[in-house]
Amino acid sequence: MLTLYDYLPSQNAWKVRVLLGLLGIVYETRQVSIFEGESHTDAFLKLNPAGAVPVLGLEDGEAIAESNAILVYLAEGTLYLPANRYLRARVMQWLFFEQYYVEPVIGSLRFWTLTGRLERNKAFAPGKREAGIRALAALERSLQDTPFLVSGSLTVADIAVYAYSHRAEDCGFPLADYPAVGAWIDRVSETIGEGYPVHPYSDDPHSAA
Ligand SMILES: N[C@@H](CCC(=O)N[C@@H](CS)C(=O)NCC(=O)O)C(=O)O
């Protein structure tokens, strides 16, 4: 059975939970208490040298880290990852976009905001805010005439980009300024369905600054 090394408030791990659920894959979960250093033990660093969740443990003992790499692995051969060369490259375009313009930008600002780390990162916050506006504007332009980021149906590109961008208001980005993004958020949310809650950092007493 597959094993997901997880941390509930992580939206990177959330992406993987969603895809596993949509694909109906039964898996085991190991919760990793990242604020208590569990992702930096020797054993965990063998699974992911970067010391972060999510990690997917495979049946043969191998492991895959990086949320979007895990999505691609799981989605191979399914409707969530097109086989067509061009469409597949477009999915990759959004997966890389997410890791450069969304996760380290909106994801970091959100993390600092929700865990009381904004003040200590105040030197970086304006740059992140500017980059977040750029990311949301890029999404707004891209979603004018298409229901999903690539092709007419949900792919791993939508799951990845949605993970942090749909929570952009948690760190002060007004989504009302981005109507096409708002409509896409509703569409993705409806398509993935219920059962994938966003867990607040406040559930973890160790997450506070
Ligand atoms: N690029 C990675 C980022 C993973 C990441 O930053 N995970 C966070 C939780 S959201 C983590 O485990 N942090 C613990 C640490 O860095 O010590 C991915 O997409 O999986």
Automatic annotation (TrEMBL):
- Tagged with keyword Transferase: yes
Q: What's one Pfam family here?
A: GST_N_2
Keyword Transferase found? yes
Which positions fall inside the GST C-terminal domain?
84-209
- Keywords in UniProt for this one? Transferase
What molecular functions are annotated in GO for this chain? Answer: transferase activity
Residue span(s) of domain GST N-terminal: 1-82
Write down what this protein is called: Glutathione S-transferase family protein
Report the source organism.
Mesorhizobium tamadayense
